[in-house]
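Box 3.1 A note on notation
Throughout this textbook, protein chains are presented in two layers. The first layer is the amino acid sequence; the second is a token string describing backbone geometry. Keep the layers aligned when reading.
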Amino acid sequence: MSKIEVTSPFDGKVVGTVKYNTFEEVEAAIDLAHKTFTNKDGWLPKYKRVEILENVMKIMSSQVEELTILCASEGGKPYIDSKVEILRAINGIKIAIEHLSVFEGKEIAMGHTNTSANRMAYTFKEPIGVVAAISAFNHPFNLAVHQVVPAIAAGCPVIIRPATQTPMSAVRLVEILEEAGLPKGWAQAVVCDRKGGELLSTSPKTAFLTFIGSGSVGWYLNSKASDGTRVVLEHGGVAPVIVEADADIEDMIPALAKGGFYHAGQVCVSVQRVFVQESICEEVASKLANAASKLIVGNQLDPKTEVGPLINNAEVDRVEEWVNEAVAKGGKILTGGKRISASCFEPTVILNPAEDALVSTREVFGPVVCIYSYKTLDEAIARANQLDVSFQAAVFTKNIDNALKTVKRLNATAVMVNDHTAFRVDWMPFGGAKVSGLGMGGIPHSMNDMSVEKMMVIKSPVL
């Protein structure tokens, strides 16, 4: 049996091993999931799904510390934030259970025309089929919960293919589901190469593909998906923030620092481009740089660490190259700008980098925040909308008209007013548009997407 070693992003030490699945094993997993789904007599009733998910919550709640260390060790997210991730994951399961109580169809009107007389009609939800989940490294446990648990709640067999850098969390989630009473075949984890992941995504036996990762891979898999497969993609964005002159600066700076440097900026909605009205730009830039300079960078398992390593050393090299390019094109480093080690990069604030610099046009996915001055709100909105991405954005202002104008005009799927771009709770819709993705995540939305509506029409002379 082939295995791979999982290493810490901070120092490269081995933190665990997992089974590495062959192409044939991925095929077998798909066949088992499909066989499980097609056996309708074996479908899990709602009350059984609730019972299993409640057991999962109990198991996870009793292992918060162990799961936190597991998640932090492989992913590099600081201990304090990894603990929040585990607690969010537990609450996400609760959200799925609660949504089952309103997971329902509706009556379709009949009898108001001669042709529909003597009939009544109702819709109800059925599981869509086998769910294939391709996951990302940056929230290894909570992303797995967001992709796997809605499938189980909706009644679908699910196969998750986690990122090979962070496979242990997803594998552990599947183990916990089975410990909680989920029968074999309903949830499987496969750790495999790209060829195996492509098979999982494109098999005609796959009814639903949920993908979290790079745009190039996601759109490729979308183009190759079998006819009839429903696809939801979550890619990245280059989150814009607009700061008007009347913004509450003291309240805003901690939010921008958290939104920009949480998990070393490796979040698809991290604060990256901050457009600040020119009258307060110098003050905002100085205060954000000061906040960034005080952040503690280091080993993710140290409870004092606020910014951990990037996922691998090659990413540190890339971020360093992008920052150097921004400086060469006229950007001013206010704090940071350099690598600390092979695995860590300083929290960095750059003032007015060129509009065509990589840090201005592409998702950095690192601890870098760029600040740009502007004269008018219309100018800021136009500059924020220049890129072909559309995910979460933000505006800071006390003027309700300017807030509403910005919300209406920004290219975004969500706009936060007086909060950072990375705000999220697990029951809200979450996802990108344009090149940033397709469809919406969020546990209730995923459950709905993983189901189909079936209608029953009854004809009777007594109706």
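The mean pLDDT is 97. The longest strand covers residues 119-127.
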